[in-house]
Design brief:
CATH architecture of the largest domain in chain A: Orthogonal Bundle
Helix content of chain B: 25-40%
Number of helices of chain A: 16
Strand content of chain A: under 5%
Distance between the termini of chain B: 48 Å
Number of helices of chain B: 18
Number of strands of chain B: 22
CATH topology of one domain in chain B: Rossmann fold
Shape of chain A: globular
Number of domains of chain A: 2
Oligomer: heterodimer
Strand order of the largest sheet of chain B: 6-7-8-3-9-10
Helix content of chain A: 55-70%
Bound molecules: adenosine-5'-triphosphate, magnesium ion
Largest sheet of chain B: 6 strands, mixed
Largest sheet of chain A: 3 strands, mixed
CATH class of the largest domain in chain A: Mainly Alpha
Strand content of chain B: 15-25%
Shape of chain B: globular
CATH class of one domain in chain B: Alpha Beta
Distance between the termini of chain A: 40 Å
Amino acid sequence: MSQNTLAPAAQRRRERRFGLFSLLVLAVMLGVFASSTRGAQATFILNDARGQLFELPDLILPVVPTVIVLSALVAGIAARQFTRGFGSRAVVIVGVVALLFVIAFLTWAAAGGQLSVVGLLRGSLARATPIAFGAMAGVLCERAGVINIAIEGQFLAGAFTAAVVSSIAGNPWVGLFGGISAGVLVAFMLAGLSIKFQADQIVVGVVLIVFATGVTSFLNTQVLSGNPQLNSPTRFASIAVPVLSEIPLIGPVLFRQSLLVFGMIAAVIVLQYGLFQTRWGLRLRSVGEPPKAADTVGIHVLATRYKAVLLGGVLAGIGGSWWTLDAVGQFSREMTGGRGFIALAAMLVGRYSPVGAFGAALIFGFSDQLATSLQLLRVPVPSDLLLTAPYLVTIVVVAGLIGRLRVPAADGKPYVKQ
Amino acid sequence: MSQAGSTEPAGRQEGRVELELRGITKRFPGVIANEAVDLVVTSGEVHGLLGENGAGKSTLMNVLYGLYRADEGEIIVDGTPLQLDDPGDAIDAGIGMVHQHFMLVPVFTVAENIVLGVEHTRGLGRLDRARASKEVAELAERSGLPVDPDALVEDLPVGIQQRVEILKALYRDARLLILDEPTAVLTPQEADDLFDAIRAFTAEGRSVVFISHKLREHRVIADRISVLRRGRIVGTADPREASEQDLANLMVGRPVELTVSKTPAQPTDSVLQVQGLRVDDAVGSPVVQDVDLEIRRGEIVAVAGVEGNGQTPLVAALTGLREIADGTVTVAGREVMGATRKQILREGTGHVPEDRSKDGLVADFSVAENLILNLWDAEPYARRGTLQFAAINEHARELVGAYDIRTPSVSTPAGSLSGGNQQKLVVAREFDRPIDLLVASQPTRGVDVGSIEYIHSQLVAKRDAGTAVLLVSSELDEVLALADRVAVMYHGRLVGPFDMPISKEAVGRMMAGADPADVLGSPTATPASTDDPATTNGSSPGAPA
Ligand SMILES: Nc1ncnc2c1ncn2[C@@H]1O[C@H](COP(=O)(O)OP(=O)(O)OP(=O)(O)O)[C@@H](O)[C@H]1O
Ligand SMILES: [Mg+2]
């Protein structure tokens, strides 16, 4: 509590900054969305094509009135931000403004057409999966004091290996094991170079990314393109939880997903518990703060760091496998498209906690999926530009929300014993 | 002694411990920190360890605690040689250590810090936090070191953090407790509490190695004193027989002047002028208020006070490090507010910060680089944007000699110097240039008597050269020895300054919040005798009974 309260002057400055943000949102809503001529109505489909307990009606919204009502809400919030302010709830209110904006945007985008809400949300969760795995890998490493920017490299190595192994074995589980091994191998190089040889961790990370990209691209053109049987992995089937998956709207979003999605959610819960409630977590976090404290009570700093980085490699390897064992079913060069960096952003936005990272991953997954959905709606925005949405969101979120972030104090600092 | 086959380490007896170090040698690149050191600590003893900065005290203790590995020698506990590969082994042997620089995880709670490494768990590896809190609270109660187990360590004042460190060792059932300069950051009251806890500890047959630069404390608490000089044991002393002067001479190897010799001040024109100064904390409540102060060339004004009464923000405001909420500060006629840090330094303010490792130096930079941190772009150390290392090193060698900074070379990273030598480095840099105002915060914290003598004489020399000196210190003796005028800081307000001489007792009572009118009475000599509380109508909270 006491750390979160700001000085009155700083508080006022912050409210005013938030107010400007709301005004900007308002301007876009009124200037672009409300003056749209794309169609009078927006149709949101809430049903899934597969079996459901009962059908929901489609949600049909009149575009201009909806946007105007939403704008009025934003205007009201902005007015209060400039006058009385929202005090300790200020940050939550910014989230509300962002949400109103997203709804207005969707209404505008779906004007004259149809948008499947189930597809959007289901896709968001699926796309959040590798990001969340990667972010958790980052959380583990950095909480233990090792900067891991090589998540992108771990993704690529994992995706590639999982594809090949699953193709050969004809079994996604074996493929997953292959993906994990690749993630751990990259993690092992990171750990060895940065913990044992105390190399600069950023440099090591960059090198590993370049290395993984180069090797997978090379093998892809040299080996896979000539041998398509090596690049046709057996994928994980989607699992439908009985009954629950037939609940309209939430059923298909939450309970009809691939195994990796469920695995990710389980990992978030286990890791959150493990890091903050167990002896293992306490010790892991203690070596990420100035580790002499841990050393002086007999905790083996280097071994603890090694284990954390390798376990991170397991998670990042699973995240990479998502591409070839779940989403796409084929490896192609640089197919992870920078999601490893987005995972880093999710780790930061989530303030180094698994649950927070998961929440941030959802935001990024949503913007990722949205870019795809919008292409189908023929929104008058160039598709290349649309595909940059996740990165734009990353920049806005990282710059705007991280603010005062508490980084593990020994993050990136090698530990040297006398 | 007898090595009867038991599961316990041979000869381990409940509570008692005999420790012997034989021929310990520890070398660092370019230095021999310990050379063939022999030391015996017997059961129930408080063994004082005394020595100059860099003499090797912390190194020796780190060897004993398994943090450093000795190059030669053995450690024998209860007749059994110990193989110490890491601190875990030392802990198992019943050795606990409170380090000179705290070893706590700031973002953990007190209980988490104390149980770290020996946690109790329930199913699924779940930490038993309730049990940890309860055990810590009980232990704290029993050992007379009260502390809230659920507080975050970073929110605690250093005095309490110190307790946490000690409790950490006690929780592991230490039979031998090493205290490396535990009192450097304590108020006198806190130090007394610590001594009570030490006595209770040794009454059970357990032992303490006590390191401090304060000779008085050795005479109060130690049963025997060993003196280290340049890595070797040069003698032992009995604190009941040896005077402080004897100890100082033995330690430094030459007669040391324990009192400051200075002539009466000859103040001239005014340099520092502070009017109605207010400084706020992060939430906007004042931590310094209504401060008026003037310091003239050629005088030392000392600010006494228990730490945490606003001295830190006051100094930060005077040196431009912190925003001034209200009032004005001028140095030699120039406003501090609105000036950049560099302008303030270049135009004639020198600053010895209280936290040397945080604000005083860059640990990874060499000694030579640290010595020009405030002149990094000035001739002759920089020419046309290029550092002139010949000049920089030459300058460093001069200062290292003049201030007796013990370092293997001027290119050694400052962070690897002993604590006291880091302090001397900062002092050397700030003293060695012409300035109008010198602000020195706790300039002799953690510094040995020989160096204190030197720093004090330099402070007086600075004064005599026409500098206005503001000395902020929680060491009452230092304040009284150096000051020409004394002010007392209490709850963010400044009382005084009063002309010297003024009695130690009077300053002490003002530090506890007594009204100066009551303490000083009439302007002439005060009859306030011995320990009678004089006036009862005054408001002196928490004054010791
Ligand atoms: N980690 C290190 N690397 C290199 N040299 C070191 C290291 N630690 C200590 N030294 C050197 O060893 C010598 C002894 O240092 P030590 O810290 O033991 O002194 P000390 O007696 O504790 O001094 P102080 O009273 O100032 O704390 C010093 O010359 C110091 O520069
Ligand atoms: Mg020391």
